[in-house]
Amino acid sequence: MFYGLDNRVMSQRFYSTRWMSARSQWYDHGPFRDSLDSLICVQCERDIQMSSRSRQSAARTRDKWREKIWYQIVAPDYFENKEIGTTPSETPEQLIGRTIQPTLYDLTGDFDKIHVRLRFKILEVTGQQAKTSFYGHEWSSDYLRGLVRRGTSRIDWIGPILTKDDYLMRISVIVFTTTRSKTSQEHSARKAIEKVIRAHAKKHTFDELVTKVILGDLAGEVYEDVKKIIPIRECEIRKSKVLKGPEEVKTRRARLRRGTAAEKEAE
Question: Rounded CA gap, 259 and 17, in Å?
Answer without folding.
Answer: 97
